[in-house]
Amino acid sequence: MAAVRAQVLQAARTHFSPLGFDIVHGFESRVYDSFVVSSPSLTRRLCQEPDESCFCILIGNTKALWNPFVRWLATNPESHIEKTKDPLHHYTQLCMENFLVKECVIELTQQTQDDSRTQSPSDNTSNFCVYPFEYRDASELVSFQRVAHLSGFASTNNTLHLSLHPEYGAWIAFRAVLIFNHLKTCATTEVVESPKMTPLKLGEEELTKAKACMEAALGANSKQDSQLNRDKVQETWQLWVAMRDCVLTGREKYRYSARQMAYHYTNNKQVLWDAVNSLD
Question: What is the CA radius of gyration of the chain?
């Protein structure tokens, strides 16, 4: 089973890297599901069977996503930009779905020890994907920041509410979790655990500056409403960027470009048109 997991993970890295998704991190669903059991606000498990654990892959990106995404937009900008509600979400879903239906992935994920779970190669319903942007209510919500933390990929700074990676710093985004229901183990079975994470600890000066930027951003959003929402973040996005910039790790090498930053925070389609029109 471990060998199959390694093969699926390598197939994912090979598939997603040229598409701009350079964060491809494998883990067992039980590291997240065991937290959900005791959480007062989360109810959705990654593996729906309470006594089992599924192999999962967290998909995300650094600044590497932008150029492949823009090149894809340029293949049909009228359709990909104007006729799509959220072009990046649509691109993400296409990339994930194309991976899950690859013949090699279907064959690998059906190599289970329990033949009773094996389905025909054309039936891939047991492999599926969840997204941070696609849920109808709180019962369907998956905390991607918590997934990243518990699976050992990126630590959560509870003061700044940021996921921080020891190499990439604050310049990361999580796009999907792939769930392979064919690759299950008993939740109590001893399997190789996710690598232990070395949390990125901010220096005192970094944290002080970042807290000041966060408070300025919150104050600009609303003095009466402390709840964040997308519209208010769009109005004050440069202040949120300033907070990320206070984290020195990864800033020089992985900081988003000006256009990627603007679109990440505003979803302004004109930014996409400008990026497409600037291609050689």
Answer: 20
pLDDT at 120 over 50: no
| Cα dihedral across residues 226, 155, 249, 68: positive or negative | negative
The pTM for the full model equals 0.88
Instruction: Please give the C-alpha separations between residue 13 and each of 3, 49, 71, 247, 277, in angstroms, as whole numbers.
Output: 15, 27, 20, 27, 30
Distance, in Å, from the CA atom of 122 to the CA atom of 129, rounded to the nearest integer, reads 18
173 bridge partner residues: 61
DSSP codes of every residue in 237-269: HHHHHHHHHT--TTHHHHPPPHHHHHHHHH--H
For helices 237-245 and 204-221, give the axis angle rounded to 10 degrees: 170
Name the nearest CA neighbour of 253 among 17, 22, 59: 22
Around Cβ 119, how many Cβ atoms within 10 Å? Answer: 14
Can you tell me the distance from the alpha carbon of 109 to that of 74, in angstroms, rounded to the nearest whole number?
A: 34
What is the separation, in whole angstroms, between the first and last Cα of the chain?
A: 46
pLDDT in tens, 46-63: 998 888 899 999 999 999
Name the token pair of 48.
């729906």
* Local structure of 121: helix, strand or coil: coil
Which pLDDT band, with edges at 50, 70 and 90, does 195 fall under? Answer: low
- What six digits make up the tokens of 230? 């997308």
* Cβ-based burial of 202 (10 A; exposed 0-12, middle 13-18, buried ≥19): buried
